[in-house]
Automatic annotation (TrEMBL), chain A:
<dbReference type="InterPro" id="IPR005475">
    <property type="entry name" value="Transketolase-like_Pyr-bd"/>
</dbReference>
<dbReference type="Pfam" id="PF02779">
    <property type="entry name" value="Transket_pyr"/>
</dbReference>
<feature type="domain" description="Transketolase-like pyrimidine-binding">
    <location>
        <begin position="5"/>
        <end position="170"/>
    </location>
</feature>
<dbReference type="Pfam" id="PF02780">
    <property type="entry name" value="Transketolase_C"/>
</dbReference>
<dbReference type="InterPro" id="IPR033248">
    <property type="entry name" value="Transketolase_C"/>
</dbReference>
<dbReference type="InterPro" id="IPR051157">
    <property type="entry name" value="PDH/Transketolase"/>
</dbReference>
<dbReference type="InterPro" id="IPR029061">
    <property type="entry name" value="THDP-binding"/>
</dbReference>
<dbReference type="InterPro" id="IPR009014">
    <property type="entry name" value="Transketo_C/PFOR_II"/>
</dbReference>
<protein>
    <submittedName>
        <fullName>Transketolase family protein</fullName>
    </submittedName>
</protein>
From TrEMBL, chain B:
<keyword id="KW-0786">Thiamine pyrophosphate</keyword>
<dbReference type="InterPro" id="IPR005474">
    <property type="entry name" value="Transketolase_N"/>
</dbReference>
<feature type="domain" description="Transketolase N-terminal">
    <location>
        <begin position="10"/>
        <end position="265"/>
    </location>
</feature>
<dbReference type="InterPro" id="IPR029061">
    <property type="entry name" value="THDP-binding"/>
</dbReference>
<protein>
    <submittedName>
        <fullName>Transketolase</fullName>
    </submittedName>
</protein>
<dbReference type="Pfam" id="PF00456">
    <property type="entry name" value="Transketolase_N"/>
</dbReference>
<comment type="similarity">
    <text>Belongs to the transketolase family.</text>
</comment>
Amino acid sequence: MGELIATRDAFGSALIACGGENKDIVVLDADLAKATMSVRFKEAYPERFFDVGIAEGDLIDTAAGLSMTGRIPFACTFAVFAAGRAFEQIRNSVAYPRLNVKICGSHGGVQVGKDGATHQAIEDLAIMSAIPNMVVLNPGDAVEMEAAVKAMVEYDGPVYVRLGRNPVPVVFDRETYQFEIGRGTVVREGGDVTLIATGCLLDVAVKAADILLQEGISAEIINIATIKPLDREIITKSVKKTGKAVVMEEGIIVGGLGSAVAAALSETCPVPMAFIGMDDTFGQSGDAADLMKYYHMTAGDTVMKVKGLL
Amino acid sequence: MGNIGELQTKAKEIRKLVIRSIGQARSGHPGGSLSCADLIVALYFDIMDIDPGNPRWEDRDRFVLSKGHACPALYAALALKGYFPVEELDHLRELGSMLQGHPYSGKTPGVDVSTGSLGQGLSIANGIALGGRLDHKDYYVYCLLGDGEIEEGQVWEAAMTGAHYGLDHVIGFVDYNHLQIDGTIEEVIGNGRIEEKFQAFGWRTMTIDGHDMEEILNAVAKAKKTQGLPTCIIMNTVKGKGVSFMENQAGWHGTAPTKEQVELALKELEGN
């Protein structure tokens, strides 16, 4: 660990790499190409890049049309506009007919920072998870994002992926990491509690586990990059061993990973649980780190939650 | 160009099937299905290059019924064209039917695009045309919009995109029957000057009588000669066209006729 890379950065690089190999890939944006990093694809393959202007509904449906001609469109904008403004285009014109459209929502979570609540997507994962046929991805670091983009190209069907704005530590080893849609990963083994983290909270979980270890508490860390379909097996297996779980996400708990894990474990192995995430509240302007503290999404908060379960 | 008389006969047949299927389903949208029936006949029985034996043929012309609620007319045309047996029309809107309440590409052979939520079809048509251009294909994408439907802002997003990318293989139609659910277009939101609006967005435009087969065919032929910009054909139509008690009545937007009304309507259409 050490290198800091934003997942949107990794996304931009992966688009170019995949676009070079696969000429069916086309990329669309709604006037945010420089922020979503789709601009890199535009520079590399201008004939396969389409900007529709500030028009997210049009973005999704133009992508839907392109997919009907055998293209693999990646439609990029901010997560709050993709999952929010274009929700119904995604539901009715993409997910229902199960079109091969990849919806890429950048600037997920509150770490967008000073732009404030209007631009902080905290419900995107929950909203997208609610749509039948939709695969929902939230990679935790640059390595996982690159692998996820490749997997999205290979997967035939609608996918939503959340990209992060800020640099986050690289957790996975590029040489050995194997990504598969629908599969979670045991990042660290432990016996006392299971930390189930998604997206950039993976790094928070790693830091929390380090603190816990110093206090003699052994935490198992499971990374969930695929919110839907959820890897119930890996979660169940872990909590059968540890008997406790803390679910961690940078977003609202209701309808997000917290709800999904609680629903799964209530059927397979009910255990005491706690949740890190936005508790039915909007974000606000502020520095990313301050916001994570304010909304109790730090390693310290995670340690407190774990202790509350012991 | 085909025989105008034959096309008119086909339109009458489609109208009868629309009435029968909606009556049988006891649910559906007769008014707007009848107003666009002539265009749908012109497209499916003359204009479009399609192969019912190979609905996914990649060089085919595409049709996007953006006003998806008018699908009884589309379904009737697809059945008569041989995409599926005409008997399927008796199962419109039934549980498990291939004929859903709004067009669904996942179930109905010949339905290119799933629609139903208004305002989305023109964007989809643009996307298909962009893909066709990348493939160096020559197919056309026809997109039918409702006059009420163009109150949706996304239609104008798509109008910008179509003009910006010079999509001359997109040909749009507005079924201008002047009625929407809550009343006349003029009463509800005063959505007028449609031709000028599309022109201002950079489209070539034409206004025609949407029930005159010859005018429809001529307009499309002209539109296909246009290079570098998309065309929108505004069709003056009558909602409920062909059934006297349905004509120009907003109430027949989404109401199914009773058995007696079906009989009455069919008799009238026979006599026409």
